[in-house]
Amino acid sequence: MSEAHLTFDLDTPGVSRGHLVVPGGADHGELSLPVFSLNKGEGPRLLVTGGNHGNELEGPIVARRLIKWLPDAQTCGRVIVLPVLNPLAVQAWSRNTPLDGLNLNRVFPGRADGSVTERIADAVSRVLLPMADTVFDLHSFGPTWEFPPAATTHPIADPDLMARTVRMAEAFKLPLTLVWQHNDTAGMFDITAQNQGKVFVCTEFGGGTVGADNLAIYEAGVRNALIALGLVEGKAEYPTFRQQKFGQTLETRPSDELKSPAPGIFEPLCSVLDEVKQGDLIGILHSIDSLSAESIDIRAPETSIVLAIASGAHVDANEEVALVARPLKL
Ligand SMILES: [Zn+2]
Question: Ligand 1: distance of its center to the CA of 62 in Å?
Fold first, then answer.
């Protein structure tokens, strides 16, 4: 069996383009994932990845933009860009890999003798991750939610790494920096990188469609982070979101998920980053079985900030319809 490898030497000075080769297995042949590297010697070592989930395409687009302007902008250090981690999922516009049904962001660090998704994770963990001290994994929230442009992390046990990660996330200067506590973190790319002491920031965007306005904010955020790392010169600035330039740092926990008490069409009654008081209406549910049935109110459990809200859609009972948050206390 061949080993996962790069088709070029990362130590080559200047720009290199080549592939990360993921060996074939019983379920799929060898994959060659395009990789860009710009080596300007001493300095920070950054890995930028996109296309971890196949239906989140802002990341691959912004990664391609980065490859275009980086050669004229980068002054030191090394940046490796892998725009599409999971080409099989991207081709299918699917969160998971259709072939094995696996979520790439839950199988890290992967397995060399596993299924194709596990082999991708193994190749990235083994070949690229050791070459970086900081990782930006570019995601988006997908079409069924409204979510503000955000740089996110999860709570990290090591307080020093936690503080450095939050500072890095805030350096994107996006409208939202989020510390996101949820219970489904096993096998995430973040965890593998953080276990090796690396700073890992996930960007998340929402709103349904891949639009020019969001892409501009996303790209500006990545540029701000590169400036903060010292890889690129320039002045970091808050991008304009809803006619404002601002940023805030929030935290959310599993208990902040609001679920629908019954099936129905969910009608959102507020927008992301709205402040709500206890009892304020966040949305209502409309029954599709009866015109005489009263709609059901979904209210804020406490004073908080609306972080994510489902797009108008039919939801099942106990399905998540909103997520609230509050200012981070470290
Ligand atoms: Zn994602």
Answer: 14
The alpha carbon of 75 and the centre of ligand 1 are apart by a number of angstroms equal to: 30
Round to whole Å and give the CA distance between 25 and 113.
7
Question: Within a 10 A sphere around the Cβ of 191, how many other Cβ atoms?
Answer: 17
Tell how far the Cα of 151 is from the centroid of ligand 1, in angstroms: 12
Q: Is the pLDDT of residue 288 over 90?
A: yes
**Positive or negative, the Cα torsion across 137, 306, 255, 316?**
negative
Q: According to the model, what pLDDT value does residue 207 have?
A: 65
Q: With contact defined as beta carbons under 8 Å apart, do 16 and 37 qualify?
A: yes
Distance from residue 283's CA to the centre of ligand 1 (Å)? 25
- Please report, for residues 38, 98, 273, the alpha-carbon distance to residue 16 in angstroms, rounded to integers and kept in the order given: 6, 31, 41
CB atoms within 10 A of CB 259: 13
Tokens 């130590």, located at residue: 11
CA of 50 to the centre of ligand 1 (A): 9
CA of 313 to the centre of ligand 1 (A): 20
Two tokens, residue 230: 């010292």
Residue labelled with tokens 């972080």:
307
pTM: 0.95
CA 202–ligand 1 middle distance (angstroms): 9
pLDDT by residue (tens digit) across 96-124? 999 999 999 999 999 999 999 999 999 99
Q: Answer for the pair 116, 88: CB distance below 8 angstroms, yes or no.
A: yes
